[in-house]
Amino acid sequence: MASDTVSIKVSQPYKGRKGILIFSLSLLFILSRLIPLFLNFEPFIMEEERYNGTIALEVLNGLKMPLFYYQHQPYAPGAMVVGLLSTPFFLIFGSSYISLKITALILSFGGFILWYIFLDKFFNSRIAIIASLLFIITPPNNLKFSLLSLGNHYEINFFTIASLFLFYNIFFSDNISSKDKAIKQSPITPLCKRGDGGIFENSSVTEVAHNDSKGQSDGVKFFFLGLICGFACYFALTFFATFLTIFIFWFIFDKKLFFKKSFLIFVVGFLTGFSPWIYNTISFKLGSFDFHGKPIYLIESGEAFATKLFRMVVTGIPFSFGFEGIKGTTFDAYLYYLIALVSFIFILKANRKYLKKLFFGIFPLKRFKTFPQEISNEVVLLVFPIFYCLLFTVSEFEVSKKVLSEAYILTFYDKFFYLSFRYFTPLFPFVFATIALFLDSLWGSERQKVLKKGLSIFILLIALSLCGLSYLKLVSPVDFGKVFLYSGSDYFIMGEKFAERYREEPLEGFKLIERLHDQYKIVALRGFGSYFGRDIDILPWFFDKIKNLDEKLKLPLYQGAANGMRHSLTLDEINFNLLQREDSKIVELSGLIEKADEKYKNLFCMELGSLLRRYVKLKTDDEINKSLRLLNHFSNDYQPKFEDLEIEYSGKDINSLVERIDKLPEKYRGDFYKALGKCMAWLLWESAGSFEATVKIIPEKYRSYLYEGAGTFAGSFFINDINRAIKIIQSLDITYRFYLYHALGEALFWKYGSNFNKAVGCIESIDKEGRRYCYEGLGSGIGYMLWWDPERIDGLLNKIEKTYKVFCKEGIRKRIEEDFLLSKQNYYYYFHLKIKY
């Protein structure tokens, strides 16, 4: 190559120091993830990832059907791949949730290391260190997503940096050898390879065309580049942004690439990596072209381009960082975003002539011929975010809607439902790299050195401090060891998969379920039944198929069928007709329920009540009248049961609310008073005296329902202060205390599940008449959390006095056999969102 370079020899002590540096950064990265994971596991719970753990368990216990049938969604095979990668961790650590988290940690750590090596090699060590610090002390959502094994979002960052690293090695390595590093002209400061020490000089830019004469080593690089790109495109759709970026740059550098041997090698590698998709589509016809039931090539944004782009830039990206807020505002998110935006604009401006050259390089004219040596290394890092944002804007992926005038207010929704920002995760590493480039350029500036070095340190400290404040909030509710209480699998979806596979012969599907471990059967059977329940037309046929099964099998199947039926229906609010969601076809449920086994008809009445509850409202006279018509309409034929009604009560005007409830049919009043009790749980916690005074207004025959409802939600308050909870319960009417003791027992397991002896000790400290209910509640918590680990349940039961063990067992049995929530667990919702924010 005809480029002027100055070599810098790297001494052994320098290499040793770099090794220590990489080790230290790696250790900090791992600790920064493990500490919040073990101290406060709740923010890292995401139900969508647990099915991937099911795949790992199935591999260990023996596949029941071909592997590709385990794929949850046809457009997201990466989830299945993550399940396979998790297999060794499930083997080592068992079937708890932690096994999935280790998989996520390893993949995110791999991406972290590759980014460090990439930035160190093609830029300089200071940039690599700054970016690494921004990876370690990072915005909350980057931290959370780095510990999720979803399989089709954050994991793609690993493939992005791996492909970019190979791409740079092929096209930008002319000035870098394995032993010596050549210093190349940078657009943002006079020195590109700054900060490494030694003598620096500007290099001349020489037009050197990339060709196929680089030998076997480049052939291997092209093959592996194709292999990574192919597999990543199979892994997740979002990698296409990276793939197109690489392809466009390659085309700009070499317009004749289609006729080159290197391109052929790349294609061979790509097809090799993409082969699972080809095999899956041809052999199993699993709709790999579909995205949420619609072909990918027909997907388009449902929002105007300019509107969506504006929202993404103004609210989408800053909220995607997931900051915890400062005094209820989004000041921290927008300040961090300002740093990132200024950095990006600065680097963009410094590279404007290269971007211009790159743009004209697209045109196949000799005068616009462009070589890698003629553009800066920063350009690719600038183009990808722009390209990704444009692709995102024209896609069907959505930006969470936020009213612009309220963008400064941080809501609970913004923090809790962070999964809605999952499509922004490919941008995070580029944000860190851009900030690092900007700060390095300030540090290396030859003008006003002291001022700019001080400014770069100040900006870095601001960015790290903003992240650090949110980090401290994430780890502050210390609850060590809770991570081992959660199931790392979702056999409900597995049951649906079995049903889908054996739709025509459900009895064959049962044979697969019978091969599962006993603890997973009930959940899989519910999933199996749910699949058929969502297809109303074949439900009677399904009832006939299962009529001769053992009762232990029929109960969860009917539970699933009833639940699936409910989710397949919606209500015509004008005529009170039940409609199928897919085609709005009117459904007559009375005949369908009649064909169900007599023992299980009540399950359909309960699920119908769950469907109708959202349409029953008591705020105004008009709402009451409409609700009365609705209840009267369905009471005649279906007798719905309202087990999970919700009523809004602010603590005021209880008399008018009681009057409204008393207008309802008498057979439903108990359900409504129970719902009122649920929303009064906060009042019980804030002021037991006010709660008791309010209860006296309720007709005496319905007070038990009110206490039962309060007990349903009280546990989420009791976990905050167990001693206070005991005092509150003991101040209540002794007739109704047992509902609250049950809630206390469940709260005790949630709070001290990882220190079970302490939970038992707390129960032993209360009065004897309340202990049996506490132990039953304790069993309810055990059943909900540990149904998947019967050996551990037995171990906990052995720690309980024989007198009360029977009550704990009954709580476990009821939870596992009767509570459908067990099948579709949402741990965080269950314990924290019973209170409606």
UniProtKB/TrEMBL annotation:
GO terms for biological process: lipopolysaccharide biosynthetic process. The chain crosses the membrane at residues 20-39, 75-93, 100-119, 125-142, 154-171, 222-251, 263-279, 333-350, 375-394, 423-443, 455-472. Its main location: membrane. One of its GO terms (cellular component) is plasma membrane. The keyword Nuclease does not apply. Keywords: Cell membrane, Glycosyltransferase, Membrane, Transferase, Transmembrane, Transmembrane helix. It is a multi-pass membrane protein. GO terms for molecular function: pentosyltransferase activity. It is found in: Cell membrane. This is Glycosyltransferase RgtA/B/C/D-like domain-containing protein. The lineage of its organism: Bacteria, Candidatus Schekmaniibacteriota.
